[in-house]
Design brief:
36% of the residues lie in helices and 22% in strands. By secondary structure, the chain is α/β, with parallel strands linked by helices.
């Protein structure tokens, strides 16, 4: 029985070591680092003590072995990790501007990630699962990826589980209009929606963040969380709107911060905490995630989050 299962891409990330080194010019790179939003989430959830499972595909190559080793090391269940013959492991090349904007070049559509399947898993793999977490990037992998995500949703709902959805819009992978269409059936049933404020506006066409969140919430008894980086987050339900401030830290690498936030938010909900405590815990996880080089390297354990919060409280006293 899993606390959370995620489906999608596992890839390696190869990044520029410094800011303002565009990808269209020769230069140095760091990596490879284990990455891919769903894989980062799976590792982040496991480090927080959740029973976490990952379903995806990697190639029979060095990068695939790197990803297998990372997931195994972090106690993520990999029964759903398929080694795909004849396909290479997905890759992303990343550069950063001085302002923190990221530039991506992806190799995903024809990688091992693009042939995800649940057919080789036992029918009861989803039995008792509490959450399915999906990232919009997984829907950009092609028809096989979309079919796998939808089947995972059906199995989760049949098992009495809930859906957590991070839209994770990536124009490099899927144009905004196509992304809105692909995400529509998941937004309709999601219990927890975790967009950035910009993504919420893009998905709904609303100019106001909170109006966008209300559109996403619709008539559901769910939760919409607008992630605002260093400004924290806004949590919106049918009964409440809660702004929870974030934390200023020395940012080294922003990749994976949202995925760590997502995992921490689910842990808080599973623990029965009030929403303010959940959001503050998740903000801390996201802040700590950016302090290390590499998408998964900064994913914190519960003890690290609690220590950070305790230190912050002492400094504010």
């Amino acid at each position: 029985m899993f606390d959370v299962i995620t489906v999608g891409e596992a890839l390696v990330e190869i990044m520029r070591p410094d800011r303002d080194q565009p990808l269209d010019l020769p230069g140095e790179f760091l990596g490879p680092f284990a990455s891919g939003a769903p894989a980062i989430f799976a590792v982040a959830a496991a480090r927080l003590g959740l029973a976490s499972a990952f379903i995806g595909g990697v190639g029979d190559d060095a990068f695939g072995r790197l990803l297998q080793a990372q997931l195994t090391q972090d106690n993520v269940d990999t029964a759903g990790l398929r080694i795909v013959p004849g396909r290479s492991t997905g890759m992303a090349f990343v550069g950063y501007t001085e302002s923190g904007v990221r530039e991506f070049v992806f190799h995903l559509r024809h990688s091992a990630s693009s042939v995800i399947s649940l057919d080789y898993l036992a029918a009861d793999y989803f039995s008792g699962v509490q959450w399915l977490h999906l990232s919009g990037s997984a829907l950009a992998l092609g028809e096989a990826g979309r079919a796998a995500c939808f089947k995972a949703l059906e199995l989760t709902l049949a098992a009495g589980g809930r859906l957590s959805l991070d839209p994770n819009l990536r124009p490099e992978l899927m144009p905004p209009v196509e992304a809105r269409q692909a995400l529509a059936p998941y937004l309709e049933v999601a219990d927890l929606i975790l967009p950035t404020a910009e993504e919420a506006r893009s998905l709904t066409g609303a100019n106001d963040d909170c109006h966008a969140a209300q559109i996403l919430l619709a008539e559901k008894q769910g939760i919409v969380v607008l992630k605002r980086a260093t400004q924290g987050c806004t949590v919106i339900t049918q009964k409440a709107k809660l702004d929870v401030p974030g934390f200023i830290v020395d940012e080294v690498d922003p990749t994976g911060a949202g995925d760590c936030f997502n995992a921490a938010f689910i842990l808080g909900l599973n623990s029965g905490w009030d929403l303010e405590r959940v959001a503050r815990f998740a903000n801390t996880a996201g802040a700590l995630a950016v302090t290390r080089q590499g998408p998964m390297e900064g994913a914190p354990a519960v003890q690290q989050i609690e220590a950070f919060l305790a230190q912050t409280a002492r400094e504010q006293a």
